[in-house]
Design goal:
This protein is an all-alpha fold. Helix content is 50%, strand content 2%.
Length: 504
């Protein structure tokens, strides 16, 4: 692809988020005056392949990450880990502890470099954490990682942990570069991608990330359709309603394609390999089955730094595209409600038995009647962390803090739309429009049907083949710290509850 034009926001001077700016200065850190970092050709993916290596001043980070990958460091929790592999991991961690604490001052002027720094440092930290012997009570992140990582996170307004953007949005390159920007077509590039960084070096891991990357690229058309619908909603006359009806059916077709791409992960990623060899690397502090704390040593060296409070791992719930579909269709009022912010608190026996008894039923597509209560409102299901009112911060809402801040700004902008689609449809007596809306919501529900099947196949079923340690702690947890299977099943069921035909 050609270089970005000089007036693109990524090439504009990047203000320090802690420094005051002059009145009238374009805010390129939030993109309020630009495009929210949502490209017309690549959507939430960056318009050019991500940076593959930082400049020489930060080469020690790149080198130590490369060393971990080339030495094929193994998970400390592997039961068959050899003494040689343990020693190799310890030698690597010694090298991390001996790194200099590199300043990030010269990174602050470049959003692209900051993203690469977060990617590299977060990957190093996860290698460090998950190669640390399981006998260690708490995990101490060494100062050479703590200080620059937290400083980079303060600039990017991201948590100091691997996120979906590290694994998917900023972890790809083209196998063969497209001919030019002008001829670039996302649909033509879905299978022309490769990953930059992998824990295991396996095709299974790469395909797991790329299945999400393909969904992001295919979703570009959905963003285009959404923009067209918003334009027509502004007009709101009979012709506009007819066009919106057609656009909604086109949106449903795109979402069906997203479902097929999601299902395609089965072709390249083996469920047992994913569960045993790939998934453990993602875990954040709130998914640690031993309850170990991550202690960021050296944080006192920079008085501006704060102790991290968000340490979940990467999750599909951090995809801005899926959140955008929810918000645009007005489904977020249903699918983002009644879900715990993490850490299920039900008893181990009840959680394990409920997921066991519901597996067969939950793999089948939900019906509107099962997704709603008798009065038509969505039920909270059994996956809520505790009885009583919904949590103050629902899980999917909390996951937005793991998104690039420009994308969070986009979602806020979308949520503030003065002419929301759902209200327009609800107030209309046009039967074709209401039907087309339900077709789009049904497509989103069927996308989540597929997600339920994927979670069952890749997490729930393999967990039952294991020794049962995770189930004894409250059921298998997703990398974001939730009871994975019951959570995605609940989101699916509540999406079905948003159908207008069930609320007439």
């Amino acid at each position: 692809m050609d270089h970005l034009p000089p007036n693109h926001f990524l090439n504009l001077p990047r203000p320090d988020v802690f420094a005051p700016t002059l009145v009238g200065t374009p805010d390129t850190s939030t993109l309020a005056a630009h495009d929210f970092d949502v490209d017309t050709r690549t959507g939430f993916m960056p318009p050019e392949p991500p940076l593959t290596r930082l400049p020489s001043a930060w080469e020690p980070w790149e080198a130590v990450l490369e060393d971990a990958i080339q030495n094929k460091l193994q998970l400390a929790e592997r039961p068959d880990l050899s003494d040689e592999e343990r020693a190799k991991s310890e030698q690597w961690r010694d090298r991390v502890r001996e790194l200099p604490i590199l300043p990030i001052v010269d990174l602050k002027s470049s959003e692209v470099r900051l993203r690469r720094a977060h990617h590299v440092l977060a990957w190093i930290m996860h290698f460090y954490v998950h190669t640390t012997p399981t006998s260690v009570h708490n995990i101490h992140i060494p100062p050479p990682v703590t200080v620059p990582l937290l400083q980079v996170c303060a600039q990017l307004q991201l948590p100091p942990v691997l996120t979906y953007s590290d694994d998917v949005l900023y972890n790809w390159a083209f196998k063969t570069p497209p001919a030019s920007n002008i001829l670039f077509s996302p649909k033509q590039e879905l299978h022309n991608l490769r990953c930059l960084t992998l824990f295991t070096g396996t095709r299974d891991e790469e395909e797991f990330y790329l299945s999400s990357a393909r969904i992001e690229l295919r979703g570009v058309e959905a963003l285009s359709v959404m923009r067209a619908i918003m334009d027509e909603a502004f007009v709101g006359d009979t012709i506009a309603i007819r066009r919106i009806t057609a656009y909604l059916r086109a949106l449903a077709d795109v979402i069906q394609d997203l479902r097929q791409l999601l299902a395609g992960v089965r072709q390249g990623c083996d469920p047992q390999i994913f569960y045993d060899e790939i998934r453990p690397w993602f875990k954040g502090a709130d998914s640690d089955t031993k309850g170990r704390k991550w202690i960021f040593d050296g944080i006192e060296l920079d008085p501006t730094l704060e102790e991290p409070t968000e340490l979940s791992g990467p999750s599909a719930g951090q995809s801005s595209l899926i959140h955008a579909l929810d918000i645009f269709l007005g489904v977020d009022k249903y699918s983002h409600s009644h879900f715990a912010a993490g850490r299920p608190q039900s008893s181990p026996s009840s959680s394990a038995s409920s997921s066991s008894s519901s597996l067969h039923d939950s793999l089948a597509p939900s019906t509107p009647s099962s997704a709603s209560s008798s009065n038509g409102s969505p039920t909270t299901m059994a996956f809520s962390s505790a009885p009583g009112p919904p949590p103050k911060v629902p899980f999917l809402t909390r996951m937005q803090s793991y998104m690039p801040r420009h994308h969070r700004a986009f979602l806020r902008h979308l949520q503030a739309n003065p002419r929301p689609l759902r209200r327009l449809v609800e107030q209309s007596d046009d039967a074709a429009l209401r039907e087309a809306y339900d077709v789009a919501v049904t497509a989103l529900k069927e996308f989540r049907d597929e997600h339920v099947r994927i979670v069952a196949l890749y997490i729930l079923i393999p967990s039952r083949k294991a020794a049962g340690a995770e189930e004894a702690n409250g059921g298998p947890k997703g990398t974001g710290g939730t009871d994975a299977f019951q959570f995605v099943k609940g989101v699916r069921d509540q999406t079905a509850g948003a159908l207008l035909s069930q609320q007439a």
